[in-house]
Design brief:
binds copper (II) ion, Helix Hairpins, Cytochrome Bc1 Complex, Chain D, domain 2
């Protein structure tokens, strides 16, 4: 409670404690009063029921008091929430790109990373972008949770106040591997951050093979392994050049996997359904994966003997 991990911890924890405090107070006191009345007005002690007519004073009290209480709780919550929607001008900007089932962070100059590294004590605005379905940008230690909705420009912002690694979790159930959609937020000193971001430019994107990079950047590897183990989709290992069984228009047939089959599988995955797998899971990547990238994917798949 009341850690310094972000500037929102105080407001959120305060609301949590106050509202939780009221809840516990009422639970305990109402239960006590109930037990007291059960004993006091037990039939043995009180054989004849007393009729009570209305009591204006009591009614005014039990209407006004709860209204004030509820308004007070709203105010405490509002006070903690409002600053989350007021990002300061001049905050550093990072784009968080969510897709099934992976986070990617894009810094200025198109530098990309899958760990969100940030300097301590500096306001940062995270623009939240989804490539497919609704995800949730949830950082429990920072007391932050924002929806990442495709087609909508949402954002989150905060000032990190403690060095260290913090968990980022996806809080919207976004499909089979939803629970693996995590990332690390690493808060470092300004100097370390400067070094890190400078080094980031030196690295070419992710891995050595451009085809594998395309697969990674589009999160294909979340459903397709390259080591032979079946995930949500068939493994890519040994796929190219093999003869496989697929269902086309409800009829099983054998096909040889070539460039054309790969392209059709990516642009129109439900045309041929691989045996033992289900249609409707992989979305069509028409207009998402360019022709040139299809070629890179093919070249890479050929290497996966
Ligand atoms: Cu998600």
């Amino acid at each position: 409670m009341f850690s310094n991990a972000s500037n929102f911890v105080h407001g959120v924890d305060k609301a949590f404690l106050i509202i939780g405090g009221f809840t516990v107070f009422f639970l305990v006191s109402f239960t006590a009063i109930m037990i007291f009345f059960i004993v006091k007005y037990n039939r043995k002690r009180n054989p004849k029921a007393t009729q009570v007519k209305d009591n204006t004073l009591l009614e005014v009290i039990w209407t006004t008091l709860p209204i004030l209480l509820v308004l007070f709780m709203f105010y405490i919550g509002w006070e903690g929430f409002l600053p989350m929607r007021q990002d300061p001008k001049g905050a550093m900007k990072v784009k968080a790109i969510a897709q099934m089932w992976k986070w990617n962070f894009e810094y200025e100059d198109n530098k990309q990373s899958d760990t969100l590294v940030l300097p301590i004590n500096k306001p940062v605005r995270i623009d939240l972008v989804s490539k497919d379905v609704i995800h949730g940008f949830f950082v429990p230690a920072f007391r932050i949770k924002e929806d990442v909705v495709p087609g909508k420009n949402n954002y989150s912002w905060f000032i990190p106040g403690e060095l260290g690694d913090f968990d980022l979790i996806c809080s919207a159930y976004c499909g089979v591997s939803h629970s693996y959609m995590t990332a690390v937020i690493r808060i470092v000193s300004q100097q370390k951050y400067d070094e890190w971001i400078a080094a980031l430019s030196a690295l070419p994107a992710a891995s050595s093979n451009p085809g594998f990079t395309v697969l990674q950047n589009n999160a294909c590897t979340g459903c397709h392994s390259i080591d032979g183990s079946p995930l949500v989709g068939p493994s890519f290992k040994g796929l190219f050049g093999s003869t496989i069984e697929v269902k086309t228009n409800g009829v099983m047939r054998k096909v040889k996997v070539d460039e054309e089959y790969i392209e059709t599988s990516i642009y129109d995955p439900d045309k041929d359904i691989a045996k033992d797998f289900t249609h409707g899971i992989m979305k069509p990547y028409k207009n998402i994966i360019k022709d040139n990238d299809i070629k890179l994917i093919n070249d890479y798949l050929k290497t996966l003997k």
